[in-house]
Design goal:
Layout (H helix, E strand, L loop, with lengths): L3 H8 L3 E3 L5 H15 L6 H7 L8 H5 L3 E5 L5 E8 L25 E8 L8 H15 L4 E6 L1 H9 L3 E2 L3 E4 L5 E10 L7
């Protein structure tokens, strides 16, 4: 059961399906989010290199209507996140290692993708609300499991909501850099989010 403060915070950030017209705002939000919220975990060089492909907008999520945005009271996008029926686990349109083939809900896990929150609006329940929406929609599509590739700051959010971490990986970036990501999984209860 949510308390009144949590319910009030959630109510102040309505969620809607993202559109291709949102793409410029999403690019700006993603950069702003990871530069501020990722600064304790990653170097500025890692962040800038990751913004060339590992972080960014994946328009297939938008076209599939599985990417969502949270809005402030002025209608500005202050959070984003989605899920996918496709095999690509993370990365923007610019990432070369993409697999756009469809997943089979009977044997595959839905992919939770590309969560970013405006630093000014962080820790106000936006990430949780977006995650719940994604899990509910994935369950309605027949998936019983979700998996994702978490950033180090994102791992803290996902752990709070039942995602189990695997061994961290070092993802290669341009310029000979790497960035640490953590694969995570969650079983949805009887095919629906808890």
């Amino acid at each position: 059961m949510t308390n009144k403060t949590e319910a009030t915070r959630q109510a102040s950030y309505p969620i809607r399906v993202a559109t291709l017209a949102d793409e410029p705002q999403l690019h700006a939000l993603i950069a702003r989010s990871i530069r501020a919220l990722g600064a304790e975990d990653y170097t500025p060089a890692q962040i800038e290199a990751a913004l060339t492909g590992a972080f960014g907008v994946d328009t297939s999520l938008i076209r599939d209507a599985t990417y969502f945005v949270a809005l402030d009271t002025d209608g500005r996008i202050v959070g984003c996140g989605g899920w996918s029926r496709r095999r690509t686990l993370f990365g923007s349109d610019a990432r070369a290692e993409r697999d756009e083939s469809w997943l089979d809900p009977a044997i595959d896990a839905a992919k939770v993708r590309a969560f970013f929150i405006d630093p000014i609006h962080a820790r106000r329940g936006i990430g949780r609300s977006l995650l719940e929406r994604c899990e509910q929609e994935a369950a309605r599509a027949g998936f019983t499991r979700c998996e994702l590739m978490a950033t180090l700051p994102g791992q803290r959010l996902y752990s709070r909501y039942g995602y189990e971490p695997g061994a961290s990986i070092e993802h290669p970036l341009p310029g000979g850099l790497t960035i640490t990501f953590v694969p995570m999984r969650k079983v949805l209860v009887a095919g629906r989010a808890p």
